[in-house]
Write a structure and sequence with these properties.
With 306 residues, the chain is α/β, with parallel strands linked by helices. It has two domains: 158 residues, P-loop containing nucleotide triphosphate hydrolases (Rossmann fold), CATH 3.40.50; 69 residues, Conserved Hypothetical Protein Ylqf, Chain: A, domain 2 (Orthogonal Bundle), CATH 1.10.1580. 48% of the residues lie in helices and 11% in strands. The chain is globular and about 70 Å long. The two termini are 36 Å apart.
């Protein structure tokens, strides 16, 4: 699945981030704890250089706690990176971000110098809600859909911290098809840009393999299905998603599965692990090599003809 969803304001936001970064002391990247890898913007890893970075794993209450700990250990192997797992339902935990900023820049904090920070994150990751908690009042617009924040703004925080907020940004083309599915499953991409059925089948296959007990309990299934299509049909029958002739309405069933995953009704679920990402990055590198080889071959043929 190739996801192409890159509104004009996102291109502008990427340019603003590049222009602002030289004046920034520390980066706060908000990730979805259910998809810590897929919700990263790879542009930042290239641009931040040696600037310290706090990776905030938001929606921690929806994620598998064992997987979250695994991800925190993995992410903190990178030099200059600290992590904090939070949920916006626990404001005191979110406010630890301010304290952590000071700890990561002790010389500035001790000298009472301004700490210039930038907060970034993909759409619908909860960045604006986190900002409102840090400020202590509603200053950033929030919403249930992606792409609410449309422009960059500067915000004063306690602890002599100045925070530059940026619109939620997805990179132009999600090359890793698995990341594309996970972004869609968690709601980071507008539902109008994807097929419910396609995403739900991908999600169902993963859940069968990794969270079968949650599926059995939530949908009151008598046995574990052997395939994703059988799972979808069993859920559809249990929830009354039937059309004429008692055929299961897969679109309605898909919406139910994704809604219950996103809300946490299905249970605490993480959709990727560091080990999975290592394998997928190898696969992605091979795909890039094949694409480069095909491009080089086309270029040679063009030169030969001309």
């Amino acid at each position: 699945m190739q996801i192409q969803w890159y509104p004009g304001h996102m291109h502008k936001a990427n340019q603003e981030i590049k222009q602002t970064l030289p004046q920034i002391d520390l980066i706060i990247e908000v990730l979805d704890a259910r998809i810590p890898f897929s919700s990263q913007n790879p542009m930042l890893s290239t641009l931040r250089g040696d600037k310290p970075c706090i990776r905030v794993l938001n929606k921690n209450d929806l994620a598998d706690p064992e997987r979250t700990k695994e991800w925190q250990d993995y992410l903190e192997r990178e030099h200059g990176v600290k992590t904090l797992a939070v949920t916006t339902h626990q404001p005191d935990k979110v406010k630890q971000i301010i304290e952590l900023c000071g700890k990561m820049l002790p010389s500035k904090s001790a000298a009472h110098k301004v700490i210039h920070t930038m907060i970034v994150g993909i759409p619908n990751v909860g960045k604006s809600t986190i900002i409102n908690i840090l400020v202590g009042r509603v200053i950033a617009k929030t919403g249930n859909e992606p792409a609410v924040t449309k422009r960059q703004q500067r915000i004063n925080l306690p602890g002599n911290i100045v925070l530059s907020d940026t619109p939620g940004v997805l990179w132009p083309n999600v090359e890793n098809k698995h990341s594309g599915y996970r972004l869609a499953a968690t709601g980071a991409i507008k539902d109008t840009a994807i097929s419910h059925d396609d995403v739900a089948f991908y999600t169902a296959e993963y859940l069968l393999e990794n969270y079968s007990r949650l599926l059995l309990d939530r949908f009151q299934l008598e046995r574990l299905p052997t395939s994703e299509i059988e799972l979808m049909e069993m859920i559809g029958k249990k929830r009354g998603c039937l059309r004429a002739g008692k055929q299961v309405d897969l679109d309605k069933t898909a919406k139910i599965l994704l809604t219950e995953l996103r809300s946490g009704a299905l249970g605490r679920i993480t959709l990727e692990t560091p080990a999975m990402m290592a394998a997928e990055l190898i696969e992605l590198a091979a795909i890039r090599e094949r694409k480069a080889a095909k491009k080089a071959a086309r270029k040679r043929k063009w030169k030969e003809k001309n």
